[in-house]
Amino acid sequence: MRAHDMGGTSFQYFPKNPRGLGTKAYDQTEAARCKLYCTEHHIQSIAHSPYPTNPAVGKLKGTDLYESMVASLKNDLEIAEACGSAGVVVHFGHAKTEDPLQSYRNVIQFMDEVLSGWSGKAKLLIENQAGDHGPMGTTMEEIVQIRSLSSHAGAIGFCLDTCHAFASGLWNGTTDDQMIQKGHDTGYWAQLIAVHVNDSKYGFRSFKDRHERVGRGKIGVDGLSWLLNREELADCIWVLESEKGDDGSHKDDIEQIRSWLN
Q1: CA-CA distance, 201 to 210, in Å (whole number)?
Q2: Contact of 180 with 159, CB cutoff 8 Å
Q3: Contact at 8 Å (CB) between 76 and 118?
Q4: Tens of pLDDT along 102-142?
Q5: Where would you tag: which of 39, 160, 165, 204 has the fewest CB atoms within 10 A of its CB?
Q6: How does DSSP assign 58-121, residue by residue?
Q7: H/E segment holding residue 46
Q8: Taking the C-alpha atoms of 196, 169, 234 and 212 in order, what is their torsion angle to the nearest 10 degrees?
Q9: What are phi and psi of 158, to 5 degrees?
Q10: What is the pTM of this model?
Q11: What does each C-alpha distance from 81 to 29, 194, 230 come to in angstroms?
Q12: Geometric angle at alpha carbon 13, from 170 and 15, rounded to 5°
């Protein structure tokens, strides 16, 4: 079922096999058709990098893997640009190093190499992590700092995952004015482009990345409806990353979210 048939105005997709790092020779004509269709129907989109993409690991597991990740993400950006998408979501990833700062240096180096020579409108969208592999990538401060230290900060934006924010402790799942203020103080909201609207199967600071359908998890209706009505999220691209309903779509979830909006 297409996004607009469900009442949706946005979607997320994998530009290629989400389990691999190979590059894809995409059909530029089909990509142009996708872009035109979305423009005509006022639909926005974001892409998501394949799961093996792990910026934090850098070259610790070999140059070949590193170069494959760089080439793969460059390819994702090219496909996203051709399809008219706002950007490509990417995680910090994780790595076991004696010097924790090395993982952050790896992320900066990786993103700089991916963005070197890039002149398209599609951006890399850093997504906050749930903390299931450690604390890296779970705070607004470090996400903003990584962007500011990049040589290509203008080509980097953010994607907020509500389940990850709750699981990691970034957001308490209720009327968290302190979190909202922190977003302003750090400049996080100014670079927020997309939101993964997910409830959580587990509780606050569980550090578990397990999404639940909206309103059915530990965050619940009150928390999600409060956050989604914040002006800081109003102009973002919202997508769902949870199980589908009985009809095989997210139609019920979309209708529920619309009922929450003031």
Answers
A1: 6
A2: no
A3: no
A4: 999 999 999 999 999 999 999 999 999 999 999 999 999 99
A5: 39
A6: TTTT-HHHHHHHHHHHHHHHHHHHHTT-SEEEEE------SSHHHHHHHHHHHHHHHHTT--SS
A7: strand 44-48
A8: 40
A9: -130, 155
A10: 0.96
A11: 13, 16, 29
A12: 115
Amino acid at residue number 225: S
The Cα–Cα gap between 204 and 46 comes to: 27
CB neighbours of 198 closer than 8 A, spacing ≥ 6? Answer: 161, 162, 163, 164, 211, 212, 214, 240, 241, 242
Between CA 191 and CA 185 the distance in angstroms is 13
The one-character DSSP state at 156 is E
Q: What distances in angstroms separate CA 238 from CA 72, 85, 194, one per listed residue?
A: 25, 13, 6
Helix (H, G, I), strand (E, B) or coil at 12: strand
Alpha carbon distances (Å) from 174 to 22, 167, 169, 234: 41, 13, 12, 18
As beta bridge partners, residue 156 has: 124
- Residues 207 and 169: their CA atoms lie apart, in Å, by 8
Dihedral through CA 196, CA 198, CA 202, CA 205, nearest 10?
40
Q: Express each pLDDT in 136-174 by its tens digit.
A: 999 999 999 999 999 999 999 999 999 999 999 999 999
What are the phi and psi torsion angles at 239 (to 5°)? Answer: -135, 155
- Choose among 235, 226, 150, 166: nearest CA to 195: 235
**What burial class does residue 125 get, using C-beta atoms within 10 Å of its C-beta: 0-12 exposed, 13-18 middle, 19+ buried?**
buried
Per the structure block, which two tokens stand in for 136?
């890296």
Q: How many CA atoms lie within 13 A of 180 on its CB side?
A: 13
